[in-house]
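Example 3.2
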Amino acid sequence: MTPESNRPLVEILYFDGCPNHEGARSLVESVARELALEPEVRLVNVSDPEAAERERFLGSPTIRVNRRDIEPGADERTEFVYSCRVYRTDAGLAGQPDEKWLRDALSHA
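Structure, written as tokens:
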């Protein structure tokens, strides 16, 4: 939670030209509405490979709730990249994280 409020902090990390970051934003808005939450949403533009390292960026889009990646096991990864992100979901490979991961992260925030 942010010190200023009880609202969860949701960060959407992306790079310019990412075809999936707007979808990630829509996903956050939809799930937050469903859970009757009003998170603080920050869009974080990762501008280059150096910024990717600094931000511990796993690819675009990355969604974090209270600074934790919503993908299970992602916090253990150490290869940070300036590229598109592909998620392994129950439905197969996707350019968006699984909605359940976001729901779980927001529910426990």
